[in-house]
Amino acid sequence: MSIKFGIKLAAHFALASALSSFSAGQQTTPPGNSDSPAQAQPQDATAGKPTAGQQPAPSSGKDTNKDKDQQDPSGKGKVTGTSNDRLFYALPNFLTLQGAGKLPPLSTKDKFKVVALGTFDYVQYPWWGLLASISQAENSEPAYGQGWLAYAKRYGTTAGDSTVENFMVGAVFPSVLHQDPRFYQSEKGGFFRRSGYAVSRIFVTRTDSGHAQFNFSEVFGSAVAAGISTYSYHPKSTYLRTPTNPHLFIGSDRTLSNTASVWATQVSLDTITILIKEFWPDVHRKMSHKDKQAPQGLQQ
Question: Where do the domains of the chain lie?
Answer without folding.
Answer: 93-283
